[in-house]
Each structure stands twice: as structure tokens, then as C-alpha cells.
UniProtKB/TrEMBL annotation, chain A:
Species classification: Bacteria, Bacillati, Actinomycetota, Actinomycetes, Kitasatosporales
Listed GO MF terms: ATP binding; ATP hydrolysis activity
Record-linked InterPro entries: ArsA/GET3_ATPase-like, ATPase_ArsA/GET3, P-loop_NTPase
Name recorded for this polypeptide: ArsA family ATPase
Biased composition (Basic and acidic residues): 362-374, 388-398, 409-423
TrEMBL record, chain B:
One Pfam family, short name: ArsA_ATPase
Gene3D superfamilies: P-loop containing nucleotide triphosphate hydrolases (3.40.50.300)
GO MF: ATP binding; ATP hydrolysis activity
Organism: Streptomyces sedi
Domain ArsA/GET3 Anion-transporting ATPase-like: 8-181
The protein, known as: ArsA family ATPase
Length: 494, 318
């Protein structure tokens, strides 16, 4: 497995990318003035995992942290040792508290948050009227958009409780993810809107709004609400009117709090981190986000770039590696007179010519295409090649388009001085080297793709500090996994 | 023989490339003499970016010719215009629609009550699916919708069930019921795009369960961005590093001893990834749905890549 941060001096790094300032996460997390860290970015870039890893790292460095996640995968909750996350901050067990810190985690429950807000800010009778209103029940259980309001509301509540000295917030996976910032404004424009007053009927709308509607050429409010009735059905209008009337007294509070939270996000104690992966769409969203944060005068700390691939042998190019692989393969095929066919067109023939089946292996797991079958000793857990062939996974246009993996037993490599096991037949070093070179070539191509994508972002925003997190083969399953990511985030000082 | 599927809803976890798959599917279904419509509902102009054209206006316009020779039309739905359209179509509101906008009713509908946005989007897509031309035949042979992500798609598609409950009578009630009938019919299929990684696969499994519980028809699981496995020999139980270095040297590589560790690390990571992928394939197979794989496009999803994916998708029945 590639160690995080390894191989930073990549041979093919775009010079512009190489000069990007690095984002120092540890000082940011350690500074007592940092009170809120907001992770934003498009879906699927590891945003929630990043938020959890930051929270854990800050806690183990001595801060009292709460992580507010929006829609975490169940496994993330489990990775923090919690069966599930709910609307109440839960203390995460097994966090190293030797530096005096603690970690709490919670998940935004939209409906609960909405209900609690209503219960807290309305008298019991009015609260009951709201909670039982069918329109409210639909609105609060997660029509798109509600999540954003409630995330702001919950963040405001957490700040108000003043029990934590650092709040790490994961943002909702919205279409644009920017709705999070829009929430106060939209709420504001809604509350300022005449529609509300019109809906609430002539008595409330009265005066200016009422006259305006008349001025618009409608015969009058009755005609207007009549139209709405016709469109949505009278029952719904009544429900909405009742809902709005019931919420009326709370609106001021809603708006004041949303405005306050918005201003809090602009304050120096907040740090926004844009999270992305080195993929075109994710970085395009990230660029958009950087611009949007600037427009809203929100304090951007930098870009967290997840899933970056690195190589310990950056100087060996894909082309060179492939050429060497072909040389090695040709050399080994030559005795069978197959040197002119290194790409594996007549695999059945080659198999018969070269090898006999090993007795211990089932033929089903080893279609004719596999080379050197007598040597593969641990392919049991491996995806069967027949399956891979059925899936037609390979891209016809790809140089290395074979059907087989390179099953290297993980436990047996990477140690100094490992020799042959007693009794095991040695694979020819040439063929193993060739396969490794092909893997490397594929890897270098990926690196090149990532660099091209990054160069585009860097050209737009050369000033944005970046911290890279190396790609891990699998997902995070426990606190140690989060710690590994936290370490990759933290140890970024150049 | 089941009726032909005409409405293809494409969803997937964020980052899995569902817009690309939706576009490729619209191309794939555009066989000679046929016409498909690709609909974008999230206002990101991802279709325009994929097809390397200017931002799409709110109108159905021809955007490409599929590899099979048919026409692909595209539509990016603008919620506000869709609402006015909808009001005009069903209620002949005329000037009242403009008045609604001026007093903020449209803002209300499209932001504060965003469920209505989902109603409009699903309504528009169903309308396009059911639309017939002067000859009585369907205007579009197939409609492909680039839908919201897996975590939200069941609620998105099911919004009309909720609306039918909220508005118990009246035209909205009937319209909502009509839309749900289309979405739950055998004419519709919801396809889920995933990657061979744990979280997207888990989300796909959850999504399939939710869709099934909501009685929405699940179609195909599309595994996107599958990296080609590297061909090679099986390894022995141990690796002789000196022999490996010698092999690398014989291939003309310089400083081969310094390459051994990095190459073995990369090989091990590759093997680990492959075995994780195998586990994810098994999870997907257990869903009991057709699974199709699409290769990772080495140069990203450009127009040429899109057509390559489309040709791959044409190999299957949808």
C-alpha cells in the first residue's frame, strides 16, 4: 500500500501544480480561535469522511470537538464505534483523550430538528397545531431544501450551547451544495415576500400587499385565492394557510437565527475547506465553490484533495514501463516461438505449449488465458477470470487490455529478504516483473490524468492552498482508518 | 413479452458519473429512425458540458445523432419556466401566471416548497414520455432522465404519491396520480449507476431496497469507470527481490533495485483493489438485477468517450 505523502516529487507534475501553497491543517485545528470548520464539495468525494477524520484529529490534539454530519453512510458511524448517529451529539469512545480533548458526533435529523425548533419557539398549543398540520409534515420530512435550513438551524444550536470549542460541519449533498449558504437568504426573501401575506388571507395581507395584488389586474384577493384553490385544491390551501399562520410568530426568530448563523460563518473563527477528488467534475465544482465562497465573503482555508495517487517510482514513465514489460514477455515467449505475439492473441495455444495445469487448482477458476498457472498459489479469493470475462470489463482500446488480475499475495511481499517458500515453484521473475511494470504503467497514466485535471483548477485558483490525501485501496472501517486520513491531512507541512 | 421500456430514469451516488451514463444511454437507444430525449433535472448544465455545446435553453432541441443513426434531443428543465408552462397548460392562467411570479408565488413554489419542484420535474418528464405526434405515435421512442442521486431518487419519484395525499381533490390530485401510474408502470425503469467501491455499492443496495418498497420498477445496475485489470502471472508464495531486480535490469531499466519496492507496493495495492472489487461485484450480483459494466475512459468523458460508452450499452437490451 502506498504510504500517504510518499513520492511527492512526481516527475510529471505540472510546474504550476508543484508551486501551489500547501494547506497546514494541524495549525488550523490547533488554533483556539478556530471554532467552526465547514467541509463542502460535491457528492462522492469523501467529504463526510474528511469531516470525521478532521474531528478525530482535532480531538486527539486536545480540542473538544463535535462533528455534525448530514447524511453519513452507516459505516462511518460504525467506524466511530457508534451503532448509529442521531440528532443528539454522542461521545465517540476510544478516542485518545491524553491531550485533554474529546470527540462527539451526530447526524442531522431534519424532522427532529424542525420539530424541536417548533416546540422550543411556539407555545404548546400552537406547536401542536403546527406539528399536526399535513403541509408541515411534508415540508419537514425532507423535501429537497429542508435539509439546508435545518443544517443551519442545528449549527446555530450547537454554537449556542457553547459546549464544544470546535464544530466540524459536513454540508448536505445538494445539487449544488451551495444551498447551504443560500438558506438564510431564501428564508429571508420568503418572509419578506408578499405571497405569505396574501396566502394568509385579506385580513392579514390587508394594506399594501392587498392593494398591490389588486393593482396587478386581478379582480381581487378572492379571485386570486380562488385561482390557487383551483390549482392545488382547496384543502391544501387551507393547510398552508393554517401552517403559515401558526408559524407566524416564529418567523422572526427563524430569520434572526439564520442571519446570525450566516454572519458567524463569515467570521474569522470559521474555516471553510473545499473537498474534492482529482476528477474533472469534482474539481469543477470545487472551483465554483471557491468562487462562491469569495462572493459571500466566507473565509476559505483551502482545498482538501482526496484520493490522490502517488508513486514511489515517479521517474519510470508509463511508456518506458510498458516497453520494458514487452521486452520481458517477448524474451520469455521466445523459446516457444511466440516472440512475435506478446499481446496474447493465441492464449490457448500458448497455454498448451507452455504449461500443464496444476493439480491443486480447479479449471473453472483458470480459463485458458492465464499464463504460468502452475505457479499461482493463492488465487482462491480472487475474482474469477470467467466472471471478469463475462462482465466485459476491459476496454478494447486499452493497451493493457487483458482479462486477468495480478494476484500477488499481500502478506508475502513488501518485506525485506523474503525468499521462496519451501516447496513453492518460483514464478519466472521476468513475468512477474512484466506484470508489475504493467501495473505501474497503468498507475502512471492515472497520475498523469489527475495532474491534467488539477492543472486546470490550479490555473483558475493558484492562490488556494491544497492538502493532498493519498488514495487508499478500501474504505475506512474504524477509528484507525480515520486516524490514517487525519495523519495524511495533518502531516502536510512541506 | 413485457411492454417496451420508454422512460429510463438514471440515478447513482454523487461522483459515479450518472450524467455521463444517462447521456450514453440516450445515444445508445437512438437507433436508426428513432428519437430519444435526454432530460436534465438538476440545473447543472451537465449535458451541455458533455456534448460540448452551449448551455441548453428550456426547450427540446436536437443535440446529437446516436451511433445507431437515430436522433437525440436534450432538455434542461428550468423549474420556474416549467411551473409557468404547467400552469398555462393545465389551467390557462395567462396573465395570472405573471402576477403569481410578481407576488413571489413562484419563488415560494420553487424554493420554499421545493417538493413542488420535484412534482414539476417528474410531471414534465412523464408528459414528454406520453406525448404523441400528429400521426398518433409517440414523439419520443425513449426518454432518459438524469435524475437526482440515489439517496434522494425514491423520494423524488414518489413525490406525487405525497402530493396526491396532500391535495386530496382537484386537478393536481389527478395529475399526481397519473404521473405515479407512469412511473410505476412496466414502461419505466430506474437504473442505478455505481462504482466498484464500498460506499457506492452500499448506497446502490439501499436504493434498490427503497425503490422496491415504493413499488418503483428497478432496471439495471450500471458499474461505471471499471479500470481494466492488468494481465499477469500469478505470484509465488514469495518474491526473490534480487531475481526481480535482475529481470528489470535485463529489460534495460536503470537502478532496478530501487524500483523493486515501489513496484511491489503498487502491485500489492493493485491486488488489494482487485479483491475489493471482486467483493463488490458479489454484492451487486446478489441484488438479482442485470449488471452492466462500463470502462473507465482514459481521457475523461469527452464526446468520443461518450460514443464509446454508447456503443457498449447498445450491446444490451434496456
Amino acid at each position: 500500500m502506498t504510504e500517504p505523502r510518499q513520492g511527492r516529487e512526481r516527475a510529471d507534475v505540472d510546474p504550476a501544480v508543484a508551486e501551489v501553497p500547501s494547506l497546514a491543517i494541524d495549525p488550523l485545528l490547533d488554533r483556539p480561535e478556530t471554532r467552526i470548520v465547514v467541509c463542502c464539495g460535491s457528492g462522492g468525494v469523501g467529504k463526510t469522511t474528511t469531516a470525521a477524520a478532521l474531528g478525530l484529529r482535532a480531538a486527539e490534539r486536545g480540542r473538544r470537538v463535535v462533528v455534525l454530519t448530514i447524511d453519513p453512510a452507516r459505516r462511518l458511524a460504525q467506524s466511530m464505534g457508534l451503532a448509529e448517529l442521531d440528532n443528539v451529539p454522542r461521545r465517540v469512545p476510544d478516542v485518545d483523550g491524553s491531550a485533554g480533548g474529546e470527540l462527539f458526533a451526530m447526524m442531522l435529523d431534519m424532522k427532529r430538528t424542525f420539530d424541536e425548533t417548533v416546540e422550543e419557539h411556539a407555545d404548546p398549543e400552537r406547536a401542536r397545531a403546527i406539528l399536526e398540520n399535513p403541509f408541515y409534515q411534508s415540508l419537514s420530512t425532507g423535501f429537497a431544501g429542508t435539509q439546508e435550513y435545518m443544517a443551519m438551524e442545528k449549527l446555530g444550536q450547537l454554537v449556542a450551547r457553547d459546549e464544544w470549542d470546535l464544530i466540524v460541519v459536513d454540508t448536505p449533498p445538494s445539487r449544488s451544495a451551495l444551498d447551504f449558504l443560500d438558506a438564510p437568504q431564501r428564508l429571508g426573501s420568503f418572509l419578506d415576500g408578499r405571497f405569505i401575506r396574501v396566502l394568509m388571507g385579506p385580513a392579514k395581507a390587508g394594506g399594501r400587499a392587498g392593494r398591490k395584488v389588486m393593482d396587478l389586474g386581478l379582480a381581487g384577493l378572492s379571485r386570486f385565492t380562488g385561482t390557487i384553490d383551483r390549482v392545488v385544491g382547496a384543502g391544501l390551501v387551507r393547510d398552508v394557510q393554517n401552517f403559515v399562520a401558526a408559524l407566524d410568530t416564529m418567523f422572526g426568530g427563524f430569520r434572526t437565527r439564520a442571519d446570525a448563523t450566516y454572519r458567524l460563518l463569515q467570521a474569522p473563527g470559521t474555516a471553510f475547506l473545499v473537498v474534492a477528488a482529482p476528477e474533472r467534475d469534482a474539481l469543477r465544482e470545487a472551483a465554483y465553490f471557491v468562487e462562491r465562497l469569495a462572493a459571500d465573503r466566507m473565509p476559505l482555508a483551502g482545498l482538501v484533495l482526496n484520493r490522490v495517487h502517488t508513486s514511489g517510482a515517479p521517474g519510470l514513465s508509463a511508456e518506458r514501463a510498458l516497453a520494458a514489460a514487452e521486452t520481458l514477455e517477448a524474451k520469455n515467449l521466445a523459446p516457444q516461438g511466440m516472440a512475435d505475439d506478446p499481446t496474447g492473441q493465441t492464449e490457448t495455444e500458448r497455454t498448451t505449449a507452455q504449461e500443464s495445469p496444476s493439480p491443486g487448482d480447479s479449471g473453472r477458476e483458470r480459463p485458458p488465458g492465464r499464463r504460468s498457472p502452475e505457479t499461482h498459489s493463492s488465487t482462491g479469493s480472487y475474482p474469477t477470470d470467467a466472471e471478469a470475462a463475462d462482465h466485459k470489463t476491459t476496454d478494447g482500446g486499452h493497451d493493457s487490455g487483458g482479462q486477468h488480475g495480478i494476484p500477488i499475495p499481500r502478506e508475502d511481499i513488501g518485506h525485506e529478504g523474503t525468499g521462496h517458500d519451501e516447496g513453492a515453484t518460483p514464478v519466472t521473475a521476468d513475468l512477474l516483473a512484466a506484470a508489475l511494470l504493467r501495473v505501474h504503467a497503468e498507475h502512471m497514466r492515472q497520475l498523469a490524468r489527475e495532474n491534467r485535471t488539477r492543472a486546470r483548477f490550479t490555473a483558475l485558483h493558484p492562490e488556494v492552498p491544497v492538502v493532498e490525501v493519498a488514495a487508499l485501496p478500501g474504505d475506512v472501517h474504524d477509528l484507525d482508518g480515520l486516524r490514517t486520513i487525519g495523519a495524511a491531512l495533518g502531516d502536510s507541512a512541506p | 413479452m413485457t411492454p417496451e421500456r420508454r422512460l429510463h430514469v438514471v440515478s447513482g451516488k454523487g461522483g459515479t458519473g450518472k450524467t455521463t451514463v444517462a447521456a450514453a444511454l440516450a445515444l445508445a437507444l437512438a437507433e436508426e429512425g428513432r428519437r430519444t430525449l435526454l432530460v436534465e433535472v438538476e440545473g447543472r448544465q451537465g449535458i451541455a458540458q458533455l456534448f460540448e455545446t452551449q448551455a441548453l435553453p428550456y426547450e427540446e432541441r436536437r443535440i446529437a445523432i446516436g451511433p445507431g443513426g437515430g436522433e437525440v434531443y436534450a432538455l434542461a428543465i428550468d423549474t420556474e419556466k416549467a411551473l409557468l408552462d404547467y400552469l398555462q397548460m393545465f389551467y390557462k392562467l395567462g396573465g395570472a401566471g405573471r402576477a403569481l411570479r410578481r407576488i413571489g408565488a413562484i419563488d415560494f413554489a420553487t424554493t420554499i416548497a421545493p417538493g413542488l419542484r420535484d412534482v414539476l420535474l417528474t410531471g414534465k418528464v412523464c408528459e414528454a414520455t406520453r406525448r404523441r405526434g400528429p400521426d398518433g405515435g409517440f414523439v419520443y421512442d425513449a426518454v432518459v432522465m438524469d435524475a437526482p442521486p440515489t439517496g434522494r431518487v425514491t423520494r423524488f419519484l414518489g413525490v406525487n404519491d405525497e402530493v396526491a395525499d396532500l391535495a386530496k381533490v382537484g386537478p393536481i390530485h389527478h395529475q399526481a396520480q397519473a404521473v405515479m401510474r407512469v412511473l410505476k408502470s412496466a414502461e419505466t425503469a430506474v437504473h442505478l449507476v455505481t462504482l466498484l467501491e464500498e460506499m457506492p455499492v452500499q448506497e446502490t443496495a439501499d436504493g434498490v431496497a427503497e425503490l422496491r418498497a415504493a413499488e418503483l420498477p428497478v432496471g439495471t445496475v450500471v458499474v461505471n469507470m471499471v479500470r481494466p485489470p492488468v494481465e499477469g502471472p500469478a505470484a509465488p508464495a514469495g518474491v526473490d527481490r534480487r531475481e526481480l531486480a535482475a529481470a528489470l535490469r535485463s529489460a534495460g531499466l536503470r537502478a532496478p533495485t530501487r524500483l523493486v519496492d515501489p513496484l511491489l507496493d503498487e502491485g500489492a495495492a493493485h491486488a488489494e483493489r482487485r479483491s475489493l472489487e471482486a467483493a463488490q461485484r458479489a454484492e451487486l450480483a446478489a441484488l438479482g438485477l442485470p449488471v452492466r459494466e462500463l470502462p473507465l475512459l482514459a481521457d475523461g468523458a469527452d464526446l468520443a468517450g461518450l460514443y464509446r460508452l454508447a456503443r457498449r450499452l447498445r450491446e444490451h437490451a434496456w
